[in-house]
Write a structure and sequence with these properties.
β4 and β5 form a beta hairpin. It is built from eleven helices and ten strands. The strands form three sheets. A five-stranded antiparallel sheet has the order 7-6-8-9-10.
Amino acid sequence: LAEERKVMCFLDVTDRFRAVSMDLCKPVQGSLSQGLEADHPQVVESWPLIQVFGIQELGNRGFFTMNHQVKDVSDKLMKLYLQVDSHSLEGSLTQDLDMLAFHWKTCTNILNQTAAHERLKLTEEAIVEPLVSYFEYGLLRAFNQNAQNAWKPRAIFGLRTNQKSPPSSADIKVENSGIDAKPAVHFVLEAAEPNGPLRTARTYFLSNGGAGVRVRTFDWDGNETQQEDNRLDRAGRSAYARYLMMAYCAVMQVHDKLVKSWCEGSIASVSDLKKSAISGLKDLELDWFRNHDFESDLDVQLSAFDNIGNPVEVVRGSPYMKYLKVSMYHVKSLDQNPIDLGAVCYGDTFLDLRSSSSHPTRSSESRPLNITSSIQRHQGWILPGQEEDTDYMHALLARLQASKRN
């Protein structure tokens, strides 16, 4: 009875029209716009539901394609499929984001589960390997591998962060990628999901910047001990880490401001993003940035992607995910002879949701939805040396205070 009902409804609907539009496209050789059926509309005659059209007992209508012109609208439908709707957004916020965050956490757990002295031997490829494996596996049958390969996940240590888009290296280690071939103070981690629009970038630190508050040690005569491991060095990597942390916080603040301004419409075009970013950094009035060349050392990139990761035109309020990345290169120290410390960057994927107003005098507004905000913004680990000693000293004092024995 249900099958008969379906057949009769199909015939009643199609009898009203002389032309019928269908999606006749099948992906061939990695392309979504070419298909075996696109040039042969009569192939629909092999479909079971279409075949009932010619049954004599149901009206003797003849072949379906004799009575109806069949049109292929696969190209138009594909454009709709690749836009963000409620269903695809739900998938991005749950399954896709969770998968990306899981592999991101797996990368950072490599540092969490490694002792301070063993972190020196880690390479860029070793840290980013979980994200790279996830990305490459997802592209095995992707239709747009060439478009997505440019977003392969990477981890970049120390001074190499000044290079724009270098691949991760198996030869670059933490212990020799910093200033004067010393241990790196920070690294940049970037990732993208395969076959999707999600991208993110963070700057993490291999220092807590806390050696300057290390407990001093004294001998029995009240003189500060002068052993090499007890000497208090207020400069060096801890100070450099603090400079980079300040730059990173400033970049994050400007990033959030740019996203909000873009969605509100106060930034007219993509080309005005950098001007607004420079203005935002100058408004912070930080002494560390007083002599910084923002025109050449600040980079702002806004991109848009469809549901399978293809780049599309950036249009405010369009139904596509946007990715904004802000990078500050050649961050300098405050030494008498400033030292180049490397670059910091921050990036998030967002969707500018346009809400229509029912009030006649109010125009529609666009507000941001940060998709990748759950990826941890701040994270750091310590390396052997003063910071490790300081950490152990604070832990020891905390245990003594908790024991109430002294």
